Amino acid sequence: MNEVARVSIDKNLQPFSEWLRRQGVEHRISELGGELVLELQRLENKDQVLEALNSYLEHPELEQQLSAANAASSPLKVRFSAGYDRVTPQQAPLVFIVISLCVLVAWLTDLGGGGEVLRALLIVNPFDISMNLNSIEGRWSALVETMQSGEIWRLFSPDMLHFSLLHIVFNLLMFWILGGQLEYRKGALALFVLIVVVSVISNVAQLLDGGYLFGGLSGVVYGLFGYTRVWSHYDRRVFMPDGLFKFALVWLVIGYTPLTEWIGLGAMANSAHLYGLLSGLVLGWLVFGLTAKRNSAP
């Protein structure tokens, strides 16, 4: 969504909003900082919308006229905004680069079925006989040795691996929605920093806790859940419904039960999910919480 205007909170924009929907204009009106904020999904008709808004505000009689017209009209098939930014490759190129890489790796590895590509993308090389991967200390030593050998990409490459169609579809959908929102509103650098920080923390945590055979963008997705949850606390225009966040928490808890294996989804990368969420929450607080506290200081 793109903010185009702010008006006093004592104005009644409901008739105007209904009129916009009748015209097929996807929009959202929300309260922020004691004002009403008008946002448009697309900016092609921005000038016409602002002209209509100014006319509506300058002529109080239009409120009653629009209310009467809306009430008298027959039911319409109107398009309601889903509340999130449906980003395009032009608006969020980094998001689509990551999505494309995940799809390419899924094809090259036959959804994690094996092969040289899979071995090259795991966080450590399990075929290096010098590594002891049967203990936390051994896995940590293996990671240190891997980094010292220059294979730094292994800290991030497990994000590209997926092991089922449901796994990759859910992760990429959530990444497109939440990651797209972040890149579109805050820039590619903000998303890049989150991916780097969350990937390192969640992938290392999963290696130490559960072993080397894991993959998926879900650590980053959980990081986005945490980050966006904090962000939405400071900016009510941010898309993060309570139901969606609660679903992520419930799924996190289910991952620690045998249920996912019983229904054929396999074991979950629980540590990647948990530490991804925690690192996203902390990163969000560092970015938005400290900024708000600094701005409110006398």
Q: Would you identify the regions where 5 or more consecutive residues have pLDDT less than 50? A: 74-82
How many individual helices?
12
Strand order of the largest sheet: 1-3-2
Largest sheet: 3 strands, antiparallel
Task: Provide structural commentary.
- This protein has about 300 residues and is mostly helical.
- Helix content is about 60%, strand content about 5%.
- It folds into 2 domains: about 1-70, Alpha-Beta Plaits; about 95-295, Rhomboid-like (Rhomboid-like fold).
- It has helices at about 15-20, 45-60, 60-70, 95-110, 115-120, 135-150, 165-185, 190-210, 220-235, 240-255, 260, 270-295, and strands spanning about 1-10, 25-30, 35-40.
- It is elongated.
Topology of helices and strands:
Layout: E1 2-8, H1 14-22, E2 27-32, E3 35-40, H2 46-58, H3 61-72, H4 93-108, H5 116-121, H6 136-148, H7 165-186, H8 188-210, H9 218-234, H10 242-254, H11 259-262, H12 270-296
Antiparallel strand pairs: 1-3, 2-3
Helix pairs in contact: 1-3, 4-7, 6-8, 7-8, 7-9, 8-9, 8-12, 9-12
Keyphrases for this structure?
298 residues; mainly alpha; Alpha-Beta Plaits; Rhomboid-like fold; 3-stranded antiparallel sheet; 12 helices; 59% helix; elongated
Task: Describe the structure in brief.
With 298 residues, the chain is mostly helical. Helix content is 59%, strand content 6%. The chain has a 3-stranded antiparallel β-sheet with strand order 1-3-2, with helices on one face.
